[in-house]
Amino acid sequence: MDRNVNKIMEDSDLEKNDVFIYSVISYDNGDLEAVPSGWLNENKTICYWPPKSSKNITTLIKNCAKPNEDWNSYSCSLIKQYGSYVDAKRKVAKLVDSCSSSSSQEFGKGHRRKKISSRVMSSENSELIYVSPIVETEETNSDASIMNISNLPVSFLTDNVDTNKKLDRLITTVDVLLKEVASLKVDIRENNKLIENFRNASTTEDHFCEVSEKCNLKFPIENLSEFNNMNKDLHENEDLKKEFSYKMKLLSGGKSDDFVRRMLDRCFSKEFATKLAWTSAKGNIPIGDSKIVIYLELICRKYNNPNYTTVMFKTCVSSWLRNASSRLKKNKTLNSVDQVFLDDI
């Protein structure tokens, strides 16, 4: 830093009382600026400027802050001195308007950090975006100047908007993925329960293989005769009851309603299910009080959910029975499509 800066710092208070507190100067590259007179050396040929890390440069100028040892120095020439910052800035504006024939010569509100061969952007608290002087060469312009943000290209100003939109889309995608992962974790837990049930049941598999030889347990039930026989056998045959419980247990896992629907699908054929109802309404076969349905409720409560109430069970079974015709129709449609496909082959 120039040796005269020490003297400037000592006489700073006197400078504030000077009638010419501010000076309009021109840097070597032709840029104009209004600065405190206390920022110039005795010969008015050097201007001291805050370092790049400084903030609120406008405040420093208006308060005629004392230059520090770490300030940068730049060559300049004095144009005129004024008693107020407003007058000095007005002079800069007039000079720019009178000598500039293109938009390349602009000025700011004191937000210029002079440093040779470097481009500097203002801090977040600054009002303007500015550039520092550029050393002239055959390939460069002689005037690098302060840019007011209102004159920046639209694409520059909207870059952040596009970035925010992309970020929002990314956040939305992440949220969807997290929900999918959570759903997948639930499915995995349910599958783990099914696997555990199979493992636990395998210890008694040999026993039920022997029981099966003595029992006549056939699924699915396809007519009223088979339905009545099954109810009778479950009431009288203890081995058949155990086998029935064992086979239904293998279907457990997941939500209770899903477990109940799997057991019903296993017990009754699609066509026979269309003739069933919880009660005998509309001439349907009532199953609400049958041994089969009573045992299904007990099995669900024992192997899946102890808190599964009779009302919940009845609601699930009734819903399954109401949709029996739709399931049958859908199944026939699928079979028809499969047959057409096989015929084409």
Automatic annotation (TrEMBL):
<protein>
    <recommendedName>
        <fullName>DUF4806 domain-containing protein</fullName>
    </recommendedName>
</protein>
